[in-house]
Amino acid sequence: MLFGIAGNMGAGKTLFLTAMANMWHNGGASVYANYKLKGFKYGQINDIEELLNVKTRPNFAALDELWISADSYNSMGSLNRLIAKRMLQHRKKDFDVGMTVQDWIQLSARIRRVTTAVFFPQIIKFDEENGKPTLLEIYYTFRVSDYLDYRTMKSFLMPVMDHLGKYVCDMYDTEEIIDEFDDPKVQLRGKLIEEYAGYEGMKKDLVAKFVIEYGLARGDASVVVDYIQRTR
Fold first, then answer.
1. What is the pTM of this model?
2. Do 166 and 51 belong to one domain?
3. Do 22 and 75 share a domain, yes or no?
4. Which of 38, 56, 73, 95 maximizes the CB count within 10 A of its CB?
């Protein structure tokens, strides 16, 4: 299932996402995340394609600030389309996915429209001694649409301490900057151009430029190498 987590900055989105990841881990799932976690075993991912190579079952992917890589303003970008494709195939690898955004409409429409539920967390209680959050009120809806108002939703309360009494907020770094996922096509383009670096006719050769684009479309750098070998 796909779970969206939305809300203003500081509302507790990553806090709730981390609590979910910890719950899935305690339930026996393997956890993968695009941000650093502490206190339990997980796999770090920088490339959405890495999720295709996992051998474990079941799995949970914690994707913080997913809109950075799958922004609705860039819906036709190659990385955006790749992420949407993988999100739509999450059941193939037995994944549940939690993803945070500040505004639900920020996220690519392809992903929004297949999301199972959207949660809007609000921190409502802090530890009086250390100021750490201890309780969330979670507004939720299973009627997912493009425009959501949490004030019309039902809610439940959720302590954000694990079963051992550890604070969930200590399981991640609230100041970590989330980077965009690596774009395989950008990486491949660099590799193709690098393969052409020693080819004198590269700048003038229109066929060479076509081969690069063809290699990108196929996702295969070998066509460039073959072309160079044939024409040198």
1. 0.79
2. yes
3. yes
4. 95
Residues 65 and 156 in one domain: yes
Q: What is the pLDDT of residue 182?
A: 75
Q: For residues 173 and 66, is the Cβ–Cβ distance under 8 A? A: no
Sequence-distant (≥ 6) Cβ neighbours of residue 6 within 8 angstroms:
13, 100, 101, 102, 103, 104, 118, 119, 120, 148
Structure tokens at 158: 């959720």
The amino acid occupying position 157 is: L
Domain limits at 199? 184-231
Contact 71, 205 (CB under 8 A): no
**In the chain, where does DSSP find H-type helix?**
13-26, 78-88, 109-112, 184-196, 206-218, 222-231
Q: Which helix (H) or strand (E) holds 123?
A: strand 117-126
By the 8 A CB rule, do 62 and 31 touch?
A: yes
Structure-model confidence comparison of residues 53 and 24, the more confident one:
24
Q: Could you tell me if residue 176 is inside a domain?
A: no
Q: Are residue 96 and residue 34 in the same domain, yes or no?
A: yes
Burial string for 143-159 (b: 16+ CB within 10 Å, else e) reads ebeeebebeebebeebe
Is there a domain that residue 178 lies in? no
Are 68 and 145 members of one domain? yes
Q: Give me the percent of the chain exceeding a pLDDT of 70.
A: 78
Question: Which secondary structure element, helix H or strand E, spans residue 96, and what is its range?
Answer: strand 95-101
189 and 166 in one domain?
Answer: no
